[in-house]
Design a protein that fits this description.
This protein has a domain at 3-42. The protein is built from six helices and seven strands, in the order H-H-H-H-H-E-E-H-E-E-E-E-E. It has helices spanning 3-6, 17-42, 51-60, 72-84, 91-102, 127-140; strands spanning 107-112, 117-122, 146-151, 164-165, 168-170, 186-188, 192-193. The strands form three sheets. It has a three-stranded mixed β-sheet with strand order 1-2-3, with helices on one face. A two-stranded antiparallel ribbon has the order 4-7. Strands 5-6 form a two-stranded antiparallel ribbon. Helix 6 (127-140) links the parallel strand 2 and strand 3 (146-151). Helix 3 (51-60) packs parallel to helix 4 and helix 5 (91-102) runs antiparallel to helix 6 (127-140). It starts with a helix and ends with a strand.
Length: 195
């Protein structure tokens, strides 16, 4: 390590113990400084930013991040999405943005020109991602178009049919002989399975 400093000095300084220790200490500091300079350069670009760089960009874009529920990659993708949301916009552009954000084929954008409605069908159950989709649509969508959100989650539901009957015994009479609270309004018999 000391060679980083000592190689720039005359050779006879290498034999002095105090100067060798000083060169070691300065080499450690220079290595740390070099690492910080590389990280500062990497933080200039969203794709190579550290967590500090992502936090700084989120503050600049007024994004309230929740590190407990949002992954680092999602936060990075959200920043890229916000930077790319510049006019002019088209339905194709919105579809491309949502495909990049949610995943290709997981969103469908349809526009009804005659009724001034835009319907977006999204297949996601991730709440932060869903909020980012809503933000993206809010930025892109003209104010005269009504936005409808459809959710299409691909789940399987198993239905089992069963038919049963129960007899109902009414415990009250309208002739005044029934006392309130003495018995329930109705009693149910045993369930009989028919099918």
């Amino acid at each position: 390590m000391a060679n980083r400093i000592l190689k720039h000095l005359p050779e006879f300084y290498g034999d002095i113990e105090d100067l060798a220790e000083l060169a070691d200490t300065e080499s450690i500091e220079l290595n740390a400084l070099e690492g910080k300079i590389h990280q500062l350069f990497a933080d200039q670009f969203v794709l190579t930013s550290s967590i500090e760089g992502i936090r700084r960009r989120e503050a600049m874009l007024s994004i309230q991040a929740d590190p407990a529920t949002e992954s680092f990659e999602f936060r990075r993708q959200r920043i890229i999405n916000r930077y790319q949301m510049k006019p002019p916009f088209s339905v194709r552009f919105l579809q491309q943005q949502l495909d990049a954000l949610v995943g290709k084929g997981r969103t469908v954008v349809s526009l009804d020109d005659l009724n001034y409605t835009m319907t977006i069908t999204t297949s996601t159950d991730d709440a932060p991602l869903f909020r980012e989709v809503e933000h993206s649509v809010g930025v892109v969508k003209p104010t005269n178009i009504v936005y409808h959100q459809n959710t299409a989650l691909a789940d399987c539901i198993k239905l089992i049919e069963r038919i049963a009957k129960k007899t109902v015994i009414w415990n009250y009479k309208l002739d005044g002989s029934w006392s309130l609270g003495e018995k329930p309004f109705a009693s149910f018999g045993h369930e009989e399975v028919l099918n």
